[in-house]
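Lab notebook, bench 4. Still working through the backlog of constructs that have no structural model yet. Next entry is a single chain of 193 residues. Request: give me the structure tokens for it.
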Amino acid sequence: MGSETSKGIPRRISMGHFGRYIRGATIDIGAGNDPMRKVIEGMSVRAWDWKDGDAQVLQGIQPQTFDTVYASHSLEDMPDVVAALKRWSEIAKIGGCLYIIVPDFMLYEHGIWPSRYNEHHRHSFSLTIPRGMMNRETHWGPDEIEALFGDAGCTLEDKAIEDWNYDYGVKDNRDQTWGKAVAQMRLVARRIR
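Model written out:
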């Protein structure tokens, strides 16, 4: 995938997500070579990547440290999605947001598992295809996504497919994300406990 955070910033600004969801002290989990940078006044961003340690554990990060926990294309790589999301929720302040971007199973993976485009993907996510249809514990359908965030002490406030510049007419199942397209979903939750 290519520069998904950078591709999304102009849209997130136009949607008003900076200030409403992404604000204040922010951690960018899995920042890699495309870290989020300060976008609005009063925002500070702490990038976390391989060199910092295990993103599922976030060793040394204290509970209720961040206003925003941002993770673009990281959750699908975690060994234990449940444990990762609980930990990510724990480091968010009460009332803070988790802003999670994951590849959409149909747009990115084209409904094929394991992933042909990224060998690190351990999990798939879909707002339309339930786990029962996939018959594997590593697929997160609409009901499982809702429960996942609820179990982590959060309530989902926004969930949507992001298919900007995606060409649905392409029939060869290529990975369009190396260009200007995105093939992902946005999951925004607020920590309530």
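Notes after review: Residues 101 and 185 are 6 Å apart (CA to CA). The two ends are 34 Å apart (CA to CA). Flag for follow-up if needed.
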